[in-house]
Design a protein that fits this description.
281 residues, alpha+beta, three-stranded antiparallel sheet
């Protein structure tokens, strides 16, 4: 996709004044950091018309609730689709960070989950959350067997785990969640505050999955975040049951993503953390 970023920004009233740093470039998609006369901005461009409609809507919804997201500078449905946002400065949330920042991230997630889902923020499953999880499990197990020697016993234990959780899964799916709230999308600013980026996957789902996403590559992060999330006793029981299962799904999904878009080393690192409970028979 050949796009003159300077010209595109100018058409939306933004003048590039410095370096353009490409962050993502793949077929039909470009994401860059650009210095402009109004400060650094994130520029997202897609060959697909309407590609950034969900993200623009998510940013505006979260901003309307007083949450720390970027400001929308420009949005065009295209093609090419374009979204220009103020640049959010910060370092990825990490278990190595201060207890205060982890508590702040947990409190922020709680605020998002309490907003409640709406009919326009649906997950990809019209038949219920439990059936969507079954489809997801089927998909990641099939992929896992293409890259590792996964014997039938492990496969059966994974499905036994799902069937044990299914009655609980059937009650989930009504929260508002980030879905892709990885630590690198939850930034710690210099003042210790939290900023959110890449919120395009905001949708209805399960709060427990947002917690699981944080543990995929940094399992030690969860306790510090929960200290700020402050689940009650009932929520704690639910999280204790569901977060490990969601982490299992998300680790396999992350490894598959790394195989397609990242490196073999990154995929292998995540796969090495995948576990199926021995008790799931």
């Amino acid at each position: 996709m050949l796009v003159d970023v300077h010209d595109l920004l100018a058409r939306h009233g933004v003048i590039a004044s410095g370096e353009i740093i490409t962050l993502v470039r793949r077929e039909g998609r470009l994401v860059a950091r650009v210095e402009t006369t109004v400060g650094p901005v994130a520029v997202k461009i897609s060959a697909e018309a309407g590609a950034f409609v969900p993200e623009e809507a998510a940013v505006r919804r979260l901003a309307g609730a007083g949450l720390p997201v970027a400001d929308v500078i420009a949005h065009a449905e295209g093609p090419p689709a374009c979204l220009v946002l103020t640049w959010v400065v910060g370092e990825a949330l990490s278990s190595a960070g201060s207890p205060e920042t982890k508590r702040a991230a947990g409190a922020l997630l709680r605020r998002i989950h309490l907003l409640g889902a709406d009919p326009d923020a649906t997950f990809s499953g019209e038949q219920g959350w439990d059936l969507w999880m079954a489809g997801w499990l089927n998909s990641v197990l099939a992929w896992w067997r293409t890259v590792a020697a996964v014997d039938d016993a492990v496969h059966h234990r994974a499905w036994a785990w799902y069937h044990e959780l299914r009655p609980l899964l059937a009650t989930r799916g009504a929260d508002l969640m980030l879905f892709d709230g990885r630590p690198e999308h939850i930034l710690v600013r210099g003042d210790g505050g939290i900023g959110l980026i890449d919120v395009s996957e905001l949708r209805s789902g399960d709060a427990a999955m947002d917690l699981a996403v944080l543990t995929v590559e940094d399992p030690d992060l969860l306790d510090g975040v929960l200290a700020g999330y402050r689940p009650d006793d009932q929520e704690r029981v639910i999280f204790d049951r569901l977060v490990p299962f969601y982490t299992f799904l998300r680790r396999l999904s992350r490894a598959e993503w790394y195989q397609r878009f990242g490196t073999a080393e990154a995929a292998a690192s995540v796969l090495a953390m995948v576990e199926v409970p021995v008790w799931a028979r």
